Design the sequence.
């Protein structure tokens, strides 16, 4: 792993998402997603949209766009997990289990 990459960045993003869920701010995109009148459907629409954009970026071989869309997709998956009341720790444990 690149020594300049902070492995805690996902945990920090997760913490902010949880904070926005528990203490919504009108100015927060994350809070607005979590509080949308469509409920979890709004977040899942974003996951679908970002998945499609990621797939197209990879397919078209646009590295910079692929990186950007991957980040968007990961973020929206985290928001969807929070909206579904799934703890990120459970996902991480499952990944760890699969690694063995």
Sequence:
């Amino acid at each position: 792993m690149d020594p300049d990459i902070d492995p805690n960045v996902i945990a920090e993003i997760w913490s902010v998402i949880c904070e926005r869920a528990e203490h919504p701010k009108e100015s927060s995109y994350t809070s607005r997603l979590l509080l949308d009148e469509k409920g979890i459907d709004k977040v899942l629409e974003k996951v679908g949209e970002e998945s499609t954009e990621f797939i197209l970026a990879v397919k078209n071989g646009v590295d910079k766009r692929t990186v950007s869309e991957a980040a968007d997709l990961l973020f929206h998956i985290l928001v969807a997990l929070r909206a579904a009341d799934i703890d990120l720790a459970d996902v991480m444990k499952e990944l760890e289990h699969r690694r063995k």
User: Anything to note?
Assistant: The CA atoms of residues 17 and 84 lie 13 Å apart. Residues 9-99 form a domain with the Helix Hairpins fold (CATH 1.10.287.1080). Residues 63-83 form the longest helix (21 residues).
